[in-house]
Automatic annotation (TrEMBL):
It comes from Streptomyces lannensis. Belongs to the bacterial ribosomal protein bL33 family. HAMAP family: Ribosomal_bL33. One of its GO terms (cellular component) is ribosome. The keyword Transmembrane does not apply. PANTHER family: 54S RIBOSOMAL PROTEIN L39, MITOCHONDRIAL, LARGE RIBOSOMAL SUBUNIT PROTEIN BL33M. Keywords: Ribonucleoprotein, Ribosomal protein. This is Large ribosomal subunit protein bL33.
Length: 58
């Protein structure tokens, strides 16, 4: 059995906030070992109606 703390430390839950300024967020997990810096993904923002960059907030 794998302890749950190790899993949470390696793959934490992060919020991705829209750079369009709408305040829309996505929630996902990331692997801290492969991506130690802040994550940026291009995803759909329904408030703007187009794809924009979403940056990880801490």
């Amino acid at each position: 059995m794998v302890p749950s703390m190790a899993r949470n430390e390696l793959r934490p839950i992060i919020k991705l906030r829209s750079t369009a300024g709408t305040g829309y967020t996505y929630v996902t997990r990331k692997n801290r070992r492969n991506n130690p810096d802040r994550l940026t993904l291009r995803k759909y923002d329904p408030l703007v109606g187009r794809h924009v960059d979403f940056r990880e907030e801490r």
